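hiii, so i know i said id send this last week but things got crazy w the move. better late than never?? heres the sequnce for the chain we talked about at the cafe, plus the structure i predicted for it. fair warning i was half asleep when i ran it
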Amino acid sequence: MTRIARGRRTLLTGAALAVAGVLIVGCSSQNSASSASGSPAATGGATAPASPTAPATPVATSGTVAAGSAGGSAETTGTPGCTTADLKITTGNYGGGTAGSYYSVIDFTNSSSAACTLYGYPGVSLRGAHLAQIGAAATRNAAPAPSLVTLAAGATASATLRMTDPAVYPAAECDPVTSAYLQVYPPNQTQAVELPFSGQTCSQASLKILAVNPVISGAA
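okay and structure toks below
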């Protein structure tokens, strides 16, 4: 074989190897691209959705939720709250007192056939003969702290009402009038009862004549 022929053969062999290398690289790149194109991340497609989570089952509560302490906790019982219709409400003289004030007690007796609960303060105000409010409604004494009271059928809870003697104020400042009724809302209720309650009081709403304690277990 001549030197020229051997040179041509060497060139052809090198070219063939180069072409084979290009083909191998091309196939490898094509396979990689094909594999990547099947990936959702490469195509921008969404991944398969996860198994749906079952919604939380709502918890049914039939109990009364009572406002909690200053910390914000709440107390839940399975016993419903006492409604106005469940209660016999009476009032009487508590007795005793301090200079310039006297006390009455408001009793709440469960007249229904089932237990119920009371929590917090009653709403109290004095009313005239035509049920117009006289002066300001009762403020709330901070002590004792409210506590949940469960009333069995026939049981009684009570709240103490302090009344300032109108005589401690000058007549011009007090504008004294005579009350005819004491209006009482049981705790957390919107229906009131009117109890006969005759006495002197101040008609000026700026004077806080009445102050009430939260309900406690037992008759006072």
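btw The chain has two domains: 1-28, 81-217. thought thatd interest u
miss u guys!!
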